C-alpha cells in the first residue's frame, strides 16, 4: 500500500537563521531570493521581463527569451524593447538584439 507523506515547512523570522542571529536575516533573505531568481531565469528558453528606470519616476518593461546561461550571467534575445530607447551592457535594446545581463535583474514572465 502506498502512503502519501506531506511535509510542511513554515518560515518564521527565526527559522533557518544563520549563526549570528537577526543581523543576518536580511542578507539571508536576499541570498534566498537571488538563488530562486537565478534558478527560474537562468535556463535557455525561459521567458523573462525586466524593468528599466527612465528618468526619475518612469519605468519601462523589456521582454525577452534566455538563449544562453553561464554561472553568473544570462544572454537574452529581446522580443519587446519597451517604449523608450535603452542600452544594456553597451548594446542597444532593440527587437532581436542579444544582451548579456545578471539574472537578478530579470524576472520570469508570460508574454
Write a short abstract of this structure.
With 111 residues, the chain is of the alpha+beta class. It is 15% helix and 33% strand.
List the helices and strands and how they pair.
Blueprint: H1 25-41, E1 47-54, E2 58-69, E3 74-80, E4 87-88, E5 91-92, E6 98-101, E7 107-108
Q: Span between N and C termini? A: 44 Å
Neighbour order of strands in the largest sheet: 6-3-2-1-7
Structural class from helices and strands? Answer: alpha+beta
Biggest pleated sheet: 5 strands, antiparallel
Helix content: 10-25%
**Number of helices, counting only DSSP H or I runs of 4 residues or more:** 1
- What string gives the helices and strands in order? HEEEEEEE
- Output mean pLDDT: 82
Q: Which range does the strand content fall in?
A: 25-35%
Question: Unreliable runs, pLDDT <50, ≥5 residues?
Answer: 5-10
Rg:
18 Å
Name the overall outline.
globular
User: How many strands appear in the DSSP assignment?
Assistant: 7
Amino acid at each position: 500500500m502506498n502512503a502519501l507523506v506531506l511535509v510542511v515547512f513554515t518560515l518564521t523570522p527565526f527559522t533557518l537563521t544563520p549563526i549570528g542571529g537577526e543581523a543576518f536575516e536580511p542578507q539571508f533573505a536576499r541570498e534566498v531570493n537571488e538563488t530562486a531568481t537565478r534558478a527560474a531565469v537562468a535556463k535557455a528558453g525561459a521567458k523573462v521581463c525586466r524593468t528599466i528606470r527612465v528618468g526619475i519616476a518612469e519605468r519601462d518593461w523589456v521582454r525577452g527569451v534566455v538563449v544562453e546561461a553561464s554561472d553568473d550571467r544570462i544572454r537574452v534575445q529581446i522580443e519587446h524593447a519597451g517604449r523608450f530607447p535603452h542600452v544594456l551592457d553597451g548594446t542597444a535594446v532593440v527587437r532581436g538584439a542579444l544582451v548579456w545581463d545578471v539574472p537578478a535583474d530579470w524576472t520570469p514572465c508570460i508574454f
